[in-house]
Amino acid sequence: MTIAPETPLNLTTSAPERNMRLAEGVGEAGLTYAELAERLQVDPKTVERWVNEPGRRPYARHAHAVARILGTTVWELWPARQPQETAPQTPTVVPVPPVLLAAARDALSRVDNLDLGSASPTAMAMHLGSLSSALRTVLDLVDVSGVST
Prior knowledge:
Blueprint: H1 20-28, H2 33-40, H3 44-52, H4 60-70, H5 74-77, H6 98-112, H7 121-144
């Protein structure tokens, strides 16, 4: 059974429901869904869904990789992903106590250096808990200061 079509265009889905920009980009690059999927290290069916299912969009890392492979931009392939322009906001500086900054940096450092391949579930839970606690404290501080998050 073939999972992905041999050609980039699968005409079984009506045109308005497809991401024609992506389908045409894959075709213009001379690739099949399977070839693009192989380069991205995803299932060929995933690429087919990005094209044929209007609500499906890839994770940001995959969207950027697809755009790079096809020689275009993420915004060209998925215009709905483009952020809406808003008026520039003046950042509000919230003083954070040094002890809280140190605790947050320590928690982040431990999570960054955690070897997920060999760490025990208990160690992962403890590191995740300390990072979560530090983030919660920082967000509480920001909320109390009247800064909208």
